[in-house]
Amino acid sequence: MKLHALSKEVSSRTHHVLAGEDVAVVEALGRVDCVLIARGDCLFFSIDLAEVPAPARRAYIQQQVQKYSPWPEAAHYVADLESDSASVWIWDASWQQQARSRLPEDLQSARCLPEPVMLAPGGDGLEVRSCQQGFDYQVWEAGRLIASRWSRDELAAGEAVLWSRSVGAENAPAANDAGPRWESEPWTEPALDWRRLIKDERALMWGGALLLMLVFCFELGLMTMFAIKGAYLDSHVQTLQESLGDKLQVRLSAERLSADNRALASQLPAYTQLEVAAEFTRLMEELPYQLVDWEYRQGGLQVTLKNAELDSRDVVSSLEAGSFFQDIRIEPGLREGEHDVSLNIGGPES
Q: What pTM was computed for the model?
């Protein structure tokens, strides 16, 4: 891997990337050795926190991880916890423990990070990042990651744009570099160089004065707090008793509505009929045919094409070139010169 020039603040470190049954070792720029979970072994979610109070957000995210995890026990990593929408990666905790047993002993207890947080962050719109294995297609909004889709192979530009539009972005992805471009620090965490602060005597003096002031204010605040705590608790308990019944009812209603929404969403097809028709037309545009019949069901499509000279092998090859259609079968139709084509429609990748 090509390395950038090293600076005084950043040294060459080893990243260990856990990917399936493999452990990849790469040289990168950083201040600490990292244990990374490959993007292909993670699931990404964007969780709305606009209505969740700050003290309850971590517990709420833990609850959402348990709901959406396909594994009995999931590990997770959270970015943008203080914003209205948090970025969350989850992965199989049991698999992580087994994979870490193959690492050097000094990394057995090191913190794991999802691979995307050590790749270059984006700004706005659709961007693509090369991973250790495959590619991560990301949609950014004002410097925040709102959607992510991993693919083992690079997506065609049309497919990438089609996916990005479904999550709110319009632009085509820029060309990606050959191989991952590692950052020296996770872009999800603010960098803080303690060595520079220790060498700054003026900063140390101000820091000491500030610490003394904080201790004094803390003691004063404690005395004031205990003086008013009794009166406050009496009034607060009464208010809570009156509002608890209503809040519990609202919460139960919200949970029932959420369950209904998830059940409804599970019945929706992965792609709309308009998207399926657009992809079918794009893949078949080079072949001469007349569309006689079109029957679309969730998960499947049955069409009848008319052209006596149409080669069934060309039809199968054209439809297999995309990622929408699977299990393609073509048979002679009921009338002369017609072909019946049946196929399944695959869902989008995570």
A: 0.52
